[in-house]
UniProtKB/TrEMBL annotation:
GO terms for molecular function: RNA binding; tRNA (uracil(54)-C5)-methyltransferase activity, S-adenosyl methionine-dependent. Residues 259-316 form the Methyltransferase domain. Pfam families: Methyltransf_31. This is tRNA (uracil(54)-C(5))-methyltransferase. PROSITE patterns: SAM_MT_RNA_M5U, SAM_MT_RNA_M5U_1. The gene is Trmt2b. Belongs to the class I-like SAM-binding methyltransferase superfamily. RNA M5U methyltransferase family. It is an enzyme of class 2 (transferase). InterPro entries: Methyltranfer_dom, SAM-dependent_MTases_sf, TRM2_met, TRM2B_chor, U5_MeTrfase_fam. It comes from the Eukaryota.
C-alpha cells in the first residue's frame, strides 16, 4: 500500500511511466493555453498547447536515486509508537500509521539501513516518541542525505519539552555512542547531526544543527564540479537527473559569453559558463555553501545574496544599469514565486529570456506563468512587456512517482 501511494507507477515499465508523465505535462500546457486565452492572449498552438512540448527526458538512474529521505516517527501497523518510516493515512481521519520504507524502489538501501538503526535506538530509549507536540514525547523525524562518493549524513530532530541541558547532553551522548560504537556503526555515518526543535520545521537560525559526530559537510560532484552540502541546504534529490537537467538548462538559455545570469532560489549554487552569475537564496547556510563551491571550483564570476527573493530582487533590479543581456533562471519551491519577484522580473527590461524550473507546474507555478504572460496592468504595477511561453521540456527526476520537473522557457 505504501509503494502504491508514494511510488504509484512502480509496476509500469519505465517507457510507460515516461508516457504517463508526458500526457500530464501536455494537459498542463493545454490548461495554460486556455487560461491565457481567457486573459485575451492568443496562445493556442498546434494540439491546443501554449508552446512546443519536447519528450520527457529520462532519468539516468531509475531505482534508489534519492539522495535525501525524511522518515517520520509514529505508530506502526502493529501499534508500536516507535516506528520509523513514512506516513500512510490522513490526519483528519486520525488513521495515520507509519510504515517502513523497505519496499520503496526510489529510496536507496543506505537510507533504509539508517532508518532501521534509528528505530532500534529509540525502541531502546526510555524516552517517548513525540507524535503530537502537546502530548509530550521527544524522538521525532530522521533525515538521511547521501552522496555518490559514499558519504552519509543523518539529522535527528528531537523535541526538548521540559528537559534541562544535562538531560539533553545525556541523550546526545547516547545517540553518538550508538552510531559510533554500538549497532548503528554499520551505517558508517560521515556526519551525525541533532536538532532540538519545538516546531514542525526549524531553520538553522531558529534552532542550530548540532554536530554530534564526524564532518560538518558532505560533498557531491556534478558535471565535474564539487559541491559542499550543509544539513538544510537544497540540493536536487536525483543527482544523475540533475546533471542532465543542468546541461539542458545551459543549452536552453542560449546565453553568450557576455550574458549575466540571475539565479533565483539558487540553493548551493549551480555554475554556468557565463560572464557573471548572481545568486539569491533564502537559506543562509546554502549561500555559505554556494560561496565555498564557487571558490573551491575556481569560479570567480559569482556573487551570492542571502535573503528572501521578494526582498532582494526588486532592489537589485531597480538599480540595474548593466548593458549586458540578463538571463533569469528561477527554481522555486512548490509555493512558487512571490508576486513581488514576478513583478520585478516583468518590469526589468534587460530580462528577455526566463527559464522557470517547476517541480509542480499544475500548482502555484501556474499562477506565476499567468502573471508573467498577462497584458501590462498599471493597477497591479505590471508595466513591463509580457513574456510568452516558447518551449517546454519535462525532466523525469522522480521515477516511479507521478512527479515531473518542467523547464519552461519564456521569451519576450
Amino acid at each position: 500500500r505504501l509503494a502504491n501511494m508514494v511510488t504509484p507507477l512502480w509496476r509500469l515499465p519505465y517507457q510507460e511511466q515516461l508516457q504517463v508523465k508526458y500526457e500530464s505535462q501536455r494537459k498542463i500546457l493545454q490548461t495554460l493555453a486556455s487560461r491565457l486565452e481567457e486573459l485575451g492572449i492568443d496562445a493556442q498552438k498546434p494540439g491546443g498547447l501554449c508552446c512546443p512540448l519536447r519528450p520527457v527526458v529520462p532519468s539516468p538512474v531509475i531505482n534508489g536515486y534519492r539522495n535525501k529521505s525524511t522518515f517520520s516517527v509514529n505508530r506502526g501497523p502493529d501499534g508500536n509508537p516507535k516506528t520509523v518510516g513514512l506516513y500512510v493515512g490522513t490526519g483528519r481521519a486520525r488513521n495515520i500509521v507509519c510504515v517502513k520504507a523497505n519496499h520503496l524502489e526510489n529510496i536507496p538501501s543506505k537510507h533504509k539501513q539508517v532508518a532501521q538503526c534509528y528505530e532500534e535506538f529509540i525502541r531502546r530509549s526510555p524516552l517517548d516518541p513525540c507524535i503530537l507536540f502537546h502530548e509530550g514525547g521527544h524522538w521525532r523525524e530522521l533525515m538521511v542525505r547521501t552522496t555518490s562518493c559514499g558519504q552519509t549524513m543523518a539529522i535527528i530532530t528531537f523535541h526538548p519539552q521540559e528537559l534541562g541541558q544535562e538531560a539533553l547532553a545525556t541523550q546526545k551522548a547516547l545517540l553518538k555512542e550508538f552510531f559510533t560504537c554500538g549497532p548503528g556503526r554499520v551505517c558508517d555515518l560521515t556526519s551525525l547531526y541533532f536538532q532540538e526543535s519545538t516546531m514542525t520545521r526549524c531553520s538553522h537560525e531558529q534552532s542550530p544543527f548540532q554536530l554530534l559526530h564526524g564532518e560538518p559537510h558532505i560533498f557531491e560532484e556534478v558535471l565535474g564540479l564539487k559541491f559542499r552540502i550543509s544539513p538544510d541546504a537544497f540540493f536536487q534529490v536525483n543527482r544523475g537527473g540533475a546533471e542532465v537537467l543542468y546541461q539542458a538548462v545551459g543549452e536552453l538559455s542560449q546565453a553568450g559569453g557576455d550574458t549575466v545570469l540571475l539565479d533565483i532560489c539558487c540553493g548551493t549554487g549551480e555554475q554556468w559558463p557565463l560572464s557573471k552569475i548572481i545568486g539569491i537564496e533564502v537559506v543562509e547556510k546554502a549561500i555559505e555553501d554556494a560561496r565555498w563551491n564557487a571558490a573551491f571550483n575556481g569560479i570567480s564570476n559569482c556573487e551570492f545574496h542571502s535573503g528572501k527573493a521578494e526582498a532582494m530582487l526588486p532592489q537589485l533590479l531597480s538599480s540595474w544599469e548593466d548593458a549586458r543581456p540578463l538571463l533569469a533562471v528561477v527554481n522555486p519551491s512548490r509555493a512558487g514565486l512571490h508576486y513581488r519577484v514576478v513583478r520585478a522580473i516583468r518590469n526589468c527590461k534587460s530580462i528577455r529570456r526566463l527559464l522557470y524550473i517547476s517541480c509542480k507546474p499544475e500548482g502555484e507555478a501556474m499562477r506565476n506563468f499567468l502573471e508573467l504572460c498577462c497584458l501590462s496592468d498599471p493597477g497591479k504595477k505590471l508595466a513591463g512587456e509580457p513574456f510568452a511561453p516558447t518551449l517546454a521540456t519535462p525532466f523525469d527526476m522522480f521515477p516511479h512517482t507521478v512527479h515531473c520537473e518542467l523547464v519552461l522557457l519564456f521569451t519576450r
